[in-house]
Amino acid sequence: MKKHSTSLRVRLPVLVLVLEVLLLALYTAFVTYDNDANAKLQNNETKPMDNALYRDYPYFADIQVMIFIGFGCLLAFFRLYGFSGMVFNFLTATFAIQWAILVQGYFQFSHAGKIHLGVINLINAEFACAVVLISFGAVLGKTSPVQLLVMALLEVPVFSVNEWAVLKYLRINDAGGSILIHLFACYFGLGATFVLYRPRLNEGHAKENTSYQSDILSVMGTLFLWVFWPSFNSALTLKGDDQHRAILHTFIGLSSSTLTAFALSAMLNKNGKITMADIQNVTLAGGVTVGASVDMMISPAAAYALGVMGCTACMLGYKYLSPFLARHLRIQDQCGIHNLHGLTGLISCAAGICAILTATEEVYGPSMYEIFSHRAPMEGDPKLLELQELIPGLQPGLGRSAREQALYQVAAVFSTMGVAALGGILTGFVLKLPYLASPSDDLCFDDELFFNVPPHYDCPMALNGQIKTDDSTAS
């Protein structure tokens, strides 16, 4: 009975078939090419290098590497869950991007009832996919592929609506996605895992451990994420000096968080040794912490300091906060997303608010009103005409003061956290429904439940302090 309840033979094919029919129908009805991909709108005088492809595709390719290789390898850190970590990431990411093209396209790229598809749509869809994969980390090892597809199906629309509402009505600055991506993904995942709480897992699980090989594979994922994170943070910034600063700040933040992670790992370990889990996760904290202010004139020193602060908060969170949340608040955060994306995201938001409050024309020049576009003078303001002479094409803004913009940033933080947590809780209840092939406690963190695994894939395997070996090879 238990084996039947987790069988994918009917559940997964039926769900995938229904989703594919739905996607095909929606793509047929609503998706067309954008101007740069439409042959009818091009001619012999068109300069190929003016096509958005050459401006945006390198960022798309870099984020693809992060999504499919970086996240995939990173999530394969459990000894017996390597197939699931990598392959469920592959499955979920592929669907999430396809679905996000439609959902986000409706809000951002639709015109005359059609979604105009270009590379920039794909980049936006990848960000939505990253949100789903971060949330996946909170329920890693405890969910079936059917549950993960359902989670992506529900999370992408909630994320897209929140993103649309925040950008349309609150008009915030969030180039690196600290609010809209990291905080949302974190609290959505925590909401889902709160509902999916398993009391027996707080006592520890025999298969919830790593191996030499799985830790190496996971660190490879970290390295891919580390190398390509500057593209993630700079993909949607204004081209030119803004994008240049975003790349510089991200690299500096990642570098400082990496050095700090090695130092803290050795210092907080009783035997003074380095812990692989710290290298796999905490080294990335700087990439998140600089996100909200990544395109601003915060100075390289501030980016360095943010990397150190983010790393420290992340490290302490893994050591002290995660166990507390599991024991007392029913939040079993399997990958520690609250530490790497939640705590660091909050620090990043605070830094972004400080950067907004201290931004002046003396530091930025007239381009301040491009970076902080909502602080630009309103239509009809004489100052707007003066600025447009210096910056042709500058659009009218909302005439906000620095203080007003900062307050809108604060509102975006709390509204995003609230929407994400509520969406995650409701999604958690859906994932608890029967027939979604949820694994039992005993079968968590084990590839054998959903995969044809090689013989003796679990040998040698340390269970309860003993080494299990095949009888034919034991001496």
Automatic annotation (TrEMBL):
Domain Ammonium transporter AmtB-like: 26-434
Subcellular location: Cell membrane
The UniProt record lists the keyword Transport: yes
Keyword Glycoprotein: yes
UniProt entry keywords in alphabetical sequence: Ammonia transport, Cell membrane, Glycoprotein, Membrane, Transmembrane, Transmembrane helix, Transport
Membrane-crossing segments per the record: 12-33, 59-81, 87-107, 119-140, 146-167, 179-197, 217-236, 248-268, 301-321, 342-360, 406-431
Cellular-component GO terms for this entry: plasma membrane
One GO process term, biological-process aspect: ammonium homeostasis
Topology within the bilayer: Multi-pass membrane protein
GO molecular function, one term: ammonium channel activity
Top-level taxon: Eukaryota
InterPro entries, per the entry: Ammonium/urea_transptr, NH4_transpt_AmtB-like_dom, RhesusRHD
Function description: Functions as an ammonia transporter. May play a role in the elimination of ammonia in the gill.
Family statement: Belongs to the ammonium transporter (TC 2.A.49) family. Rh subfamily.
Protein name, UniProt field: Ammonium transporter AmtB-like domain-containing protein
